[in-house]
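Support case: nicotinamide-adenine-dinucleotide complex. Customer-provided input:
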Amino acid sequence: MERLAGKICIVTGGARGIGRAIAGRMAAEGGKVVLTDIDREAGQAAAAAIGCTFESLDVREEADWARLAALVPRAEVVVNNAGITGFENGPVAHDPEHATLEDWRAVHRVNLDGTFLGCRYAIGAMKAAGTGSIVNISSRSGLVGIPAAAAYASSKAAVRNHTKSVALYCAQQGWAIRCNSIHPAAILTPMWEAMLGTGEDREARMAAFVADTPLRRFGTVEEVAAVAVMLASDEAGYVTGTEFNIDGGLLAGSAASPG
Ligand SMILES: NC(=O)c1ccc[n+]([C@@H]2O[C@H](COP(=O)([O-])OP(=O)(O)OC[C@H]3O[C@@H](n4cnc5c(N)ncnc54)[C@H](O)[C@@H]3O)[C@@H](O)[C@H]2O)c1
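Agent response - structure generated as follows:
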């Protein structure tokens, strides 16, 4: 059975990584997927491979969302996935003492402003039917402090909280428009490439990144897509305002626990 049969699904940042996997899985489940991304070339290629529609969309830009609203005025599923770490062009100081205001704002503009605009678009596209599912991709970093990536952690914590405001607002209006956040940790995607590098120590770096993860491995994009489909589907009809960790057990315990 196709779990998203006939549902119009918008996915941001769908050109690669987690967004691409979510778009592919949603299409496989019968969704009419509109894959969006700031990267037009990669986005078009991904959409062609999946067999879905592509629209260019920079999540930071209100005008882009207005254009999408004109093109796709109704949607049943919106996945706010586009995000950046701020380390895309190599290491930069993002700790609370040395991060520049410019770098801080650049991360929040994509991750937080983009999610705010995506949720606002989604409400407009769903309220006539009074039903729908918004899935916001936050992070494990939105649940704990990350000293070296303070801007990223702050933006993802805000995404988690805004998810709950959206969920409660929609419920207050009497709409069955659900909004939930997903919190992945260490999912092997191109986002990690700048941090892993290509040198001889790549394997050692990978092992170090997951050394504290109980399952001792990176997660896969398919594992995130499976949860996104579940939250998007009618099977999750009573699930709203909640958060779903996909972290190999990382947040289940504490390094400081006795024994
Ligand atoms: N990979 C992980 O380990 C991990 C862990 C936790 C959370 N996440 C989150 O999952 C989401 C996807 O991450 P990923 O690892 O697939 O990243 P990625 O870097 O592989 O892909 C991100 C995509 O977003 C697009 N994008 C960037 N800026 C954009 C903008 N302004 N407007 C529209 N599109 C834009 C990029 O072009 C790219 O296609 C992000 O929100 C990320 O923070 C990832």
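Residues 8-184+220-245 form a domain with the Rossmann fold fold (CATH 3.40.50.720).

Case will auto-close in a few days if no follow-up is received.
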